[in-house]
Specification:
The protein has 7 helices and 3 strands; from the N terminus they run αααβααββαα. It is mainly alpha-helical and 154 residues long. It has a domain of 105 residues: Winged helix-like DNA-binding domain superfamily/Winged helix DNA-binding domain (Arc Repressor Mutant, subunit A), CATH 1.10.10.10. The protein has a 3-stranded antiparallel beta sheet with strand order 1-3-2. β2 and β3 form a beta hairpin. α3 crosses α6. The longest helix is centred in the first third of the chain and has 23 residues. InterPro entries: HTH_MarR-typ (IPR000835), MarR/SlyA-like (IPR039422), WH-like_DNA-bd_sf (IPR036388), WH_DNA-bd_sf (IPR036390). One of its GO terms (molecular function) is DNA-binding transcription factor activity. This is HTH marR-type domain-containing protein.
């Protein structure tokens, strides 16, 4: 019996099991989408670029907190993005030990390309659902996350 297709009866209909299986599926689809796009960028890169474009310049610490990415991972990912000239970092004049990060024009263009990748993944993941079911699914997930009891994870 393949482990990926079966679960014990007392497990298979539990929301925690279903959410973890769906997370694994969606993560795999996203990784495959980014891999097919090429360029070595992944979910963390996308999340940080999206945050910078939407919210504007921010400190590394604020980016980590806002996106749920661990501080050390933020530093590493921003270094990768900076080496590709997708973001710029400069010292915060009001706080000597803090860096302010901005998205570059090349970063904004890369983000648009990655948006298309992520849109394709969403379509593939949700393809069994009607448009109304998709809206309901997203609304229900958002409601479950809105109570804020669980901390964000990377």
């Amino acid at each position: 019996m393949p482990a990926s297709s079966r679960a014990p009866a007392r497990v298979k209909d539990r929301p925690t099991w279903l959410v973890s299986r769906l997370f694994a599926r969606s993560s795999g689809l996203l990784a495959d989408g980014f891999e097919a796009h090429g360029g070595g960028l992944r979910s963390y890169h996308y999340r940080l670029l999206a945050a910078l474009e939407e919210w504007g310049p921010a400190s590394q610490a604020d980016l980590g907190r806002a996106t749920g990415i661990d501080r050390s991972d933020v530093t590493a990912v921003l270094s990768e993005l900076e080496s590709r000239r997708l973001v710029g970092r400069s010292a915060d004049p009001g706080h000597g030990r803090r860096n302010i990060v901005t998205i570059t024009a090349a970063g904004a263009e890369q983000l648009r390309e990655l948006d298309a990748v992520v849109d394709g993944v969403q379509e593939r993941l949700l393809s069994p659902l009607t448009a109304a079911q998709r809206r309901q699914f997203v609304a229900l997930m958002s409601k479950l996350l809105a109570d804020g009891s669980a901390p964000p994870t990377g």
